[in-house]
Design a protein that fits this description.
- Helices cover 40% and strands 15% of the residues.
- The protein contains 9 helices and 7 strands.
- The strands form 2 sheets. The chain has a 5-stranded parallel β-sheet. A two-stranded parallel ribbon has the order 1-2.
- The chain is globular, with a radius of gyration of 17 Å.
- It starts with a strand and ends with a helix.
- The structure holds norvaline (NVA).
- The site of norvaline (NVA) has 9 residues, from helix 3.
Length: 210
């Protein structure tokens, strides 16, 4: 069996590969999607929460590649996702409708993080400046003021809420060091689960165990 695993910048490159390849293409990161990260995130939440259907997730930060894939995966599993971002940095309404239609779960957008995290079981974030957006860094730092995941924000969620970050994390920017390195942080388990989730996906694609 052969598979091409592509970690690229432009999502169009993965699409071109998929259109012309005779072997399966696995997207290992593009500027539009990060599906294997989402698989690892589901596995990590499953380990902490048990059955995921009916559970709730808040995404606090930019609606980027990681946010998009996570939302798709969560809705497919029947989870409820609330996105929180400054106006203009959240999902467009057509995008929300697309996600919402993917499964039994649901998605919503609220601007304020304090509202998004209320009683949720999991809080996810990522860097505010992703690949290819480096020139926007200053403007983004301004726009996202007040969106840092802090202990105060964690306290508004359900008791025992987990914090999730795909890393690299910028402490003091999108997350406080106290949260990133605190007892609620699942970031290291998430990183570890990238291995297991990816191996599971590859085994599935080549048909091992089926
Ligand atoms: N959103 C980040 C994810 C890195 C794994 C980026 O695209 O830079």
């Amino acid at each position: 069996h052969s598979i091409i695993c592509a970690r690229v910048f432009k999502h169009a490159v993965v699409e071109r590969l998929a259109a012309s390849s005779t072997v399966p293409i696995v997207n290992m990161l593009s500027d539009r999607a990060h599906p294997l990260q989402a698989l690892a995130d589901l596995l990590t939440m499953r380990q902490r929460l048990g059955v995921l259907a009916g559970r709730s997730v808040a995404w606090v930060g930019d609606y980027n590649n990681v946010a998009r894939s996570l939302g798709e995966a969560c809705v497919m599993l029947g989870m409820h996702v609330r996105y929180s971002a400054p106006q203009g940095y959240g999902p467009a309404s057509e995008e929300l409708a697309r996600l919402d239609a993917l499964g039994a779960g649901s998605v919503d957008y609220v601007e304020r993080p304090e509202i998004a995290v209320k009683d949720v079981d999991a809080i996810h974030t990522d860097t505010w400046t992703s690949m290819g957006q480096e020139s926007e860094r200053q403007a983004r730092l301004e726009a996202f003021k007040g969106f840092t995941v802090t202990s105060e924000l964690m306290a508004l969620a359900a008791p025992g809420v987990g914090f999730y970050h795909c890393m690299p994390a910028y402490r003091g920017v999108e997350v406080s060091a106290e949260v990133m390195d605190g007892p609620g942080s699942c970031a290291i388990a998430q990183g570890h689960n990238r291995l297991h989730a990816s191996r599971g996906l590859l085994a599935h694609v080549v048909g091992v165990g089926s």
